[in-house]
Amino acid sequence: MKIVRYRSAGAAAWGVIDDEGVVTTADGTPFVDLRPTGQAVANPTLLAPVTPRTVMCVGRNYRSHAEEFGNKVPDEPLLFLKPPSAVIGPDAPVVYPSLSGRVDPEAELVLVIGRRASRVAAADAWSVIGGYTCGNDMTARDIQKSDGQWTRGKGFDTFCPVGPWVETDYDPTDVAVTCVVDGEERQNGRTKDLIFPIPYLIEYITRFTTLEPGDVILSGTPEGVRPVQPGNRVTVAVEGLGSLSNPIVAQD
């Protein structure tokens, strides 16, 4: 099932999307007990298909990406948080902040939590995941480096595009993750190359913090990261999950 969040007639709601791309309404709670009604929605605009309390991100989780920036491959997952205010949906503009001189997109597979997760063993990790989607870990690289920690560089408003939907029936263990800018492919990796695989990440993260349904984990980005400029359009895709496209615009 493909879970979406949409706006129609000025109101936001949850629904599902069928194989023909038709959005229909749904009852229940997303990632818990959502039930499609079959009633089509008129002129929907897709929003981010998550409203997370926690946006957990994994840095340097592909060896090739760590090496392209001359960084040490971590011995344990390198975690950071983005504020929920960074989350935007398909086609929403990413604002290039006036404070930065270099902004990079980073294509990622996103895990969406489906039930409350605390101290989950790796063997049980799949049971707490409600679905998967595409994500873009936008980064003000110069600010990330100058600050020495990543909160500002990763946390600007609009710096976490997610979408276009959450797929609940999906095998994420060996799929392509790509980033294309104005038709030019920049990133192309596979999730089988994650340094810390998904079950390990779930166990590691839930040992110290509780995740709730709708929270997300951005699992890391492959090599090929390069900067963008206002006027570019970034398209992130994960094999079998569709694509997420966002324009880059200058800050007013």
UniProtKB/TrEMBL annotation:
Source species, domain of life: Bacteria
Keyword list, A-Z: Isomerase, Metal-binding
Any GO BP: carboxylic acid metabolic process
Every Fumarylacetoacetase-like C-terminal domain range: 54-249
InterPro entries cross-referenced by the UniProt entry: Fumarylacetoacetase-like_C, Fumarylacetoacetase_C_sf, Rv2993c-like_N
Presence of keyword Isomerase: yes
Single GO molecular function: metal ion binding
Keyword Transport: no
Domain Rv2993c-like N-terminal: 1-49
SUPFAM superfamilies: FAH
PANTHER family the UniProt entry points to: ACYLPYRUVASE, ACYLPYRUVASE FAHD1, MITOCHONDRIAL
Protein name per UniProt: 2-hydroxyhepta-2,4-diene-1,7-dioate isomerase
